[in-house]
Amino acid sequence: MASRLFRAVIMGPPGSGKGTISDRIAQSFGLKHLSSGDFLRDSIAANTEAGVMAKAYIEKGLLVPDHVMTHVLLPRLELMSGHSWLLDGFPRTLAQATALDSVCQLDMAIILNIPFETLKERLSERWVHPASGRVYNVEFNPPRVKGVDDISGEPLIQNDDDKPEAVLSKLRRYKDIAKPVMDFYKKKDILYSFSGTDTDKIWPYISSLLSTKLPAVQASAQTSH
Ligand code: G5P
């Protein structure tokens, strides 16, 4: 029998550290890190119909409509059917949560609660290397050389949706939309919430939670052979 797979989502407002924590989880626990933002940026770069539609919303700091998101994301998940994964940035709406629920059963939903003021600061200090998606922060994880990617030596840029107007409009809408999604996972008894201002302080709690869940998954895989 195949190993039991582990599937989790990580949610939180823009800039809450979903990407940073997902990278740590992927490294420490061997899950595939799937990012809705990266999938969208791939679609934009490939100039697909969905990518062209998504670009217009992202540039205005708006959520991409649910039907476009599910069209981009669900086929990617199908390709991952044999893997354990952590999905970063999806679902963001109840409609997305329901669509995800219809194709797979989640083991865990992680939610990051970070104060509004902290998020505004972080996002305005964020720089990315567009070709690889590597993310830097002027204070938290600066590049070795200012404005330059550590690995490729290429210039870093600031995404349009990290500009102040886009950040503010995203944060304002986040709470109303996220609440029903949290309730959805709370009812299923798989919601784990983490609050704080520092990723480094939140990370040990997330890591220890996963250590209690992932060995159980692996143990059940061993006994099921
Ligand atoms: P994305 O790419 O999913 P966002 O806006 O949700 O974008 P974002 O901004 O990438 O999420 P994050 O992943 O939560 O934030 O956070 P991060 O990148 O790890 O950290 C943010 C910054 O803070 C970085 O510079 C990091 O180094 C720094 N940092 C982390 N921890 C700390 C700390 O403790 N201290 C300090 N000082 N700094 C720290 O989606 C992009 C767009 O695509 C669309 C939306 O338009 C979205 O805006 N989209 C969707 N639309 C509809 N439905 C969906 N499911 C969608 N998914 C994406």
TrEMBL record:
One GO MF term attached to the UniProt entry: nucleoside triphosphate adenylate kinase activity
SUPFAM superfamilies: Microbial and mitochondrial ADK, insert 'zinc finger' domain (SSF57774), P-loop containing nucleoside triphosphate hydrolases (SSF52540)
Ranges where the record places region LID: 125-162
The reaction(s) this protein catalyses: GTP + AMP = GDP + ADP; a ribonucleoside 5'-triphosphate + AMP = a ribonucleoside 5'-diphosphate + ADP
A matching Pfam family: ADK_lid
Subcellular localization(s) per the UniProt record: Mitochondrion matrix
The enzyme's E.C. designation: 2.7.4.10
Top EC group: transferase
Keywords: GTP-binding, Kinase, Mitochondrion, Nucleotide-binding, Transferase
Subunit structure: Monomer.
PANTHER family on file: NUCLEOTIDE KINASE
NCBIfam families (UniProt xref): adk
Domain notes: Consists of three domains, a large central CORE domain and two small peripheral domains, NMPbind and LID, which undergo movements during catalysis. The LID domain closes over the site of phosphoryl transfer upon GTP binding. Assembling and dissambling the active center during each catalytic cycle provides an effective means to prevent GTP hydrolysis.
This protein's name: GTP:AMP phosphotransferase AK3, mitochondrial
